[in-house]
């Protein structure tokens, strides 16, 4: 135990030394080549975290921004190089988008700050553009805005069909992509710290299980994003559930029928890489830990194989975690889940496969003001040093896979020099 703590401390010291006080104005745009991410034309893998709350908290200029900065600093000391967060708050309390096309400047400046801090700490961002669920507005808010204009809409799934709603969404995409950062002076579409755009967090269309409705929407919106921004990667935001393209794969869905199709949705022109989520405790309530872990391994392996053989695109596990609020959840079970996910990512990346990173759900600082954001899946480094060590170890071996590249020289100069 004492040896592990010492090694952990030395690793964190090295990472802090490599990152502290340096701005990363030379972060390169991320590209893809078949199943690889590339930075400066060299293969690149990542280790990351979700922090959906960054923009909202950063909209409070004093105490909020200090919490955002400390979170990026903590992430940096653990070697994390990717953060996924929301670029939306539609209607409701302290919105980004008050009404269609009308934005709150204080909230937008919060997002400006998040992007500038990500650049400062050498952490790329995946920015999600809207939510499938009602939280923070989501499809429900877009539907209500259209109803306010006289549209007769019966379902949140009309988000994918109605021309007025689609216009609202496209206008939001345009507003985000063309926003000029008030801190850096750089338009978002030209900001290298942005890794990728995400069309929608966990899209689902349960009124059309054929998948045709969602497929058409993805095709239309991918084309719209790419017509504005050719610098950045784009992904859908999928959880990974299969559809009719490979019917025999639907047995992996655990009975969920959501109108999505991991294969056809990710084969859309303009979609640069695939994503999956992994929540076996939530998806398999009442099952044993052994059953959940066996499913997790099969779930990841199936998508790795399909990303490699069918999609020929990179794959990110863009959400995964284990809830402390569910019965019988112990720290060692959370550690086992993280280790299983990380080992699968590392094995794929080391072997030249498509799975190139994982983004756990979700990182919080230990500040008292963050208490309301706890959902059972939170990772607070100060409270979970053993899990922090697992995360740092993954960052370290992922960094070694990037060894000798310009990316490693940019992000980890102390490790590169052997300090």
From TrEMBL:
It is an enzyme of class 3 (hydrolase). It comes from the Eukaryota. The keyword Manganese does not apply. Residues 1-18 form the signal peptide. Belongs to the glycosyl hydrolase 5 (cellulase A) family. This is mannan endo-1,4-beta-mannosidase. Keywords: Glycosidase, Hydrolase, Secreted, Signal. It catalyses: Random hydrolysis of (1->4)-beta-D-mannosidic linkages in mannans, galactomannans and glucomannans. It comes from Ensete ventricosum. Its EC number is 3.2.1.78. The lineage of its organism: Eukaryota, Viridiplantae, Streptophyta, Embryophyta, Tracheophyta. One of its GO terms (cellular component) is extracellular region. GO terms for molecular function: mannan endo-1,4-beta-mannosidase activity. Residues 29-362 form the Glycoside hydrolase family domain. Residues 398-419 are annotated as: Disordered. GO terms for biological process: polysaccharide catabolic process. It is found in: Secreted.
